[in-house]
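pasting for ref
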Amino acid sequence: MAGPTECEVLVVGAGPVGLLTTLFLAKAGVDVVLIEGLPDVDESPRAMTYGPAAVIELERAEVAAEARSIGMEESDYNFRLRWITVDHKLIGEFQPEDRIHGSLDTVICGQYELSKILKSNVGKCRSAKILFNHKLAEIEDTARAVIATVETPDGKKQLSAKYLAGCDGGRSTVRKLVNLSYDGFTLPQWLVACNVRYPFKGHGFARSQFIVHPEHFCLIAKIDRTGLWRVSYNEKEHLTREEVLANVHHKFEAIFPGPKPLNKDAYKIEMLSPYRIHQRSAPSYRKGRVLLAGDAAHACSPFGGMGLTTGICDAAGLADSLIGVLRKGCDDSLLDKYADIRRQKYQDVTHKVSYNNTCVLRDTPPEKASEAEFFKMLNSSPEARRKMLENAYTLGHDFRQYWPAEQATNGTSTAINLDAKPDPPFATTTLGI
């Protein structure tokens, strides 16, 4: 095995979090290598809509407009988010007129499409390199560098970097190799994420809606301008994966609008992925020269879209912290600040909001939904709804404020306080699944 290839930062995982981290670093002239075990970016049906704090970072990375052009039609800019019963009666909604004055347009774009956009932009940066079919096998953290042993189609090789960013998802190899636990719990239900074609709009469905029901709670939302929709629903915990897959049509018949019984020829499934819902976090997002971001650092219920929105904020924060240390003269302790603040954001915002959103859908009796605290606030006034929308900004934190004053640069900003804690009941406008 030849001597290690050297770079300043090695990023592991070519999902949106790893790609965005790489893009920010490369734009600052940092020598960065991104490795991914798969032959290309993952096509699994995951996130599709990004919260306001994430949109700020996508704008700063100059990819938001391209993402909107793929995922959105003109009518989608008047974003409407509804909560309905299983027989499709309205419980409550955010309306276009609730939008905060001066806020950025939402971004709606399938996670796979966003990854392709980010990959293309990274490819234009001279200081960045993406290596697919490179699977991380070992990590050695030394006093001067972190050395990664990587399995490739041509055999094992080593990569040496000043820092390593683990952005390799919930089953993170990075996290396991540095012996960090993944503390928390797993919800009993399955979650089944489907990309499906069905005329929901013709049956009166808005762009996005949650169904509130103890057995059939779910999200139904349009993914793109081609008529592809995301249907993400829960399944009973005692079922095997095979039983979950065999029961898809029964679930569709329970939650889809339109004539009953539902004809199997009325819809077309393009992708389907059952998985478990976790509320977990590593005890620290830094260990030596290794740092974690996104699902490698934490996991949450995707109902409400806190997962990738938090991951995108992690990516921006980690990149800005590394740029501060490598280019702006900041002390290495800035990386400890990144780890502490982003973990606190998970605990104070992501975990609480995502779990609360899931409980609202699962545990609220539909016939008594109007009496629940969340829906009483949602239906009380436009001012109350705007306050709930402002809470969605609290996931962000601008680590450039810790750069020396003469080194700081201006970027897309918002007047919302990014570090305020959200007021209960927690709410967010994003749809992560």
